[in-house]
## 1
Amino acid sequence: MVEAEKPHISSGLEGVYIAESSICKVDGQNGRLYYRGYSIDVLSSNSNFAEVCYLLLNGKLPSSAEFSDFNRQLVEARDLPEGVVNIIKEMSKKSHPMDILRTAVSSLSAYDAETADQSPEANLRKSIRIISKMSSIVATIGRINAGGSYVAPDKSLSHEENFLYMLNAKKPDKRQVDIMRDMFIIHAEHSSNASTFGTMVAGSTLADIYSAITSGISVLKGPLHGGADEAALRMMKAIGSPDNTEAYIDSALAGKQKIMGFGHRVYKAYDPRAKIIKAYLESLQLDASAEVKTYTAIALRSEKMMVEKLSQSHGIWPNVDFFAGPVYVAAGIPPELFTPIFAASRSPGWCAHMLEYWKNNKLFRPLEVYTGQLDLQYVPIEKRQ
């Protein structure tokens, strides 16, 4: 009897294509990122988050009239139901912000009359509401965790401005808005990463879009996906002083410790998103708080050292998470909100992939190679050793 050849297993589905998509192109070899054919550099220089959301969901940039209508829908959806605010209050300071976000987003289905309507038109409308409300939820989590009360949204403000207004109960300055605009844009989409795949797996069962997005949030919570920016900032805090940077990195590398914020599963060149954030770091050296200047100096010295040691020889470059921490701090964002903001930013990408995949839906059902025994004899419990 010839033993069957063991199938090839791609651990972590590495190198396995799961679908065709026109939403995002990640060129890892050359360090390029495209949303619907537009370079991330072009979008961050010229666009805003609401327009990028329209682009991802609809496949094209909007006309003035289309943008006006789309933005109106986003603005009208900002306010949170009292029940959702109460969930945030109840879980505040007892749960991780990502747990609060997951629960709050899941609860939104109870307040949407179209939850069970799986038509493309209804799913697009629900996507707009999800994108809008997720940012409001994250801002409210931060607000209530800081001891404040719910701040109703301001319809006169942009998406980025309103997020900061609901978080801090005051209108933000231009630098804060510019930072949040770019952070929202560069995190909005990134092809079939773990959280997007998790969203698609849930959605492929024809679960409603709230269930699918809740799955994406759950996947993003894992430290191997979300949370690296917070971990990188903790490292900078541990370094303490810029003059300690080189010794700390040398010691960490000698001990084979992972330097958070370096290396990426896809990028084998400089992460294009990291380049955008690094530009803020360089500007923050001039007129930021002492804390931010310290983090900035540590980040830039760490990057220089890591690039010299590992980038050319091992293909390990800074990724988007490495520079994010100091920039978030400059915008007044507490570290525990870094990953929830990532989730709120990624919501248009998750929704876009669901809208696209449902056009030719097929239930995900991968195989596994069984390595256990077969036809074992059942022994009654009283006779087992």
Note: The chain has a mean pLDDT of 92.
## 2
Amino acid sequence: MKLHKFIFKEVLGKGAIVDDMKKCKTPVFLKKTDDEFQENQAFEYLIVEPENMLREPNGKASSVILMFHGLNERTWDKYYSWAEYIANHTRKPVLLFPTAFHINRAPAEWSNPRAMQPFVADQQNTEPKPSHLTFLNYALSNRIKADPYRFYLAGRETINNVCQLIGKIKKGTHKLIDSKATIDIFAYSIGALMSQVILFANPNNYFTKSKLFMFCGGSLFDQMDGESKMIMDRESFYSLLDYYKNKFLFFKSESRLKGDVLEMAFVSHIDYAINREERESFYEEISHRIQAISLKKDKVIPTTGIKSALGKIHLNCLEELDFPFDYSHENPFPPEGPKVNPDDRKFWFEKVFSKASAFLS
């Protein structure tokens, strides 16, 4: 796998994002506000270059596939094999772009057990005891609990960043990707929701022809279940759900609402009844540009939630699989071992990613 590293420095929309960050309530364990984390504003993104890459005469890639990850991810580890397979089978580079405050855009201590476990232990001594709270999800859980608006704000910030990057590509100043390159998306988990918002809002008409392949993602927000030792604790998830179903959506008591197309696109994916006609009409219109695979035992992003989001087009673009080994949403392809036959794992891995590659080719 040929891996390229590029530095990204946030510019587009930064002022508005910083203003909203300063209004976010800071959880007790943090010693600074969100806008003070420099690693979130300047960071690396990665590009996996395939063998025999499709190139323009100038040597640059004629297409690129953006890859978006799941919620509370701290490394790209599980995604490297995904990106490599897709890149080599489409002959297109795969660009791994981190969401705000995830992967390398967050302090390293947020995923360090020595740093986080004392906070977890203190919280475990409270009543009622938190459910599913771990050192892995402590930072996200408490940041969400302090101010659930952070979830939406991180999405807006990341979409701004992606648009800034595409703007650079369109200007012809990217070292690897041609200015006329087609731009498609492979999205997993919450990255799929962000991708749905991106296609729905279509900022600067950057995504008019983009194809989207979703894996374990694509559900309406209120049909997801983020309670997980690897994502967030129960109290945090239910506070998040309550905030977006009530304060954010209906009561208009959130002063930070923008009222723009991007926000409307997100709102359209919160609840089944909200903007249903517009949402389903949109998916009918782009049905040839979207495909999805869900997993039967996925408790975080259930197939029913994806069907609700897509409407009747799910009959043609959504496939539910059920692997013959012990998998989960967070770990769809667990390491080989006594409970995971390597041949089974290889077969189902290739079934998922061969379909994704064929669609994105």
Note: The chain has one domain: 2-360.
## 3
Amino acid sequence: MDRDTNPVRRSGLYRLNIILLSLITMLSAAGALYLREELRRAWEPGDGQSRFGSEKIEELKKEAAEQEREKVLAEIRQSLEDGTTVSGMLRDMFADQIVITAGGRYWFMPVEEDTGLRAASRDDFEIGEDGAVRYTGGAEGVSAIRGIDVSEANGDIDWERTAGDQVAFAMVHLGTGQEDGTVSVDRRFARNAAGALQNGLQLGCYMEIYGSDRESILNQTEGMLAALRPFIGRLNCPAALVVHMPDGWESSTEEERQSLSEALQTACTMIEEAGCTPAIGGDIAALTLLLDPAVLADRAKWYTGYDETLYYPYAWSLWQYRAGGTIEGITGDVNLNIHLVEETAE
């Protein structure tokens, strides 16, 4: 993607510029509607003459614009006083686009409907204060289960207690890929994977993948599959490649974005051929700015970023919705996830 041709706004003063431009658009539209109604009333049916001259019409236009300006400014002030962020307001204003804050800028990406929109929205879930989840949507054959993702940073886990705390699955950190193609395996991966399985949890795994070179990405995927070999055939949740925004990503081109997406598509095929279900993981910025959603439209997505509003507009399989969860058997905060499960016809 050519970053110079994208609608970009810097933070600080540019935030104000965006809001002002939005206001102008809103005021113009509202003012036009108000003026049209006034002119309709002013026109005498049948005589073909208006009671208002050009000066009166200009006066009406200014009056309409001022009224709408005061109204919109009052709404913005109230939203800010209520705690709404600038990003939140922009997302409301630009409902047909994905508004992202990344690299000290605002990015506006059109929602590509032919890429496959999500099957469930935030309104389709009840999430309790304790993190418990229930699917309340009306889709036939769809349910949601709650799980966690863990790594060596979570320390020793009492998996028996964890399994008894409304946890149905675990995404276990397998390791971190390096740009040279090697993989640093998580020191507790095998122990955590075995503990989850032994206590009846569904098991998935994830590896953080770095670099944009095709050969590097495929080598990292081979390293992931080598470490995963003892558990292949026992995973019933995805094996995910999690992508992060690298330094200097702003200067990447459309060709580089496409190339990275195609490399990940090949990596998913490798995981699939090994007998696992692949998935691509990342936050809203990585999934929409760094990757091409159209290239990876047919792959399961793990939407991360602790976004309880579920802002991501495309189809997803896993949703990491909370970072500060508390789970029995684990010391400290735990990431909480939802796995959207669709029944398949036998």
Note: The chain is about 35% helix and 25% strand.
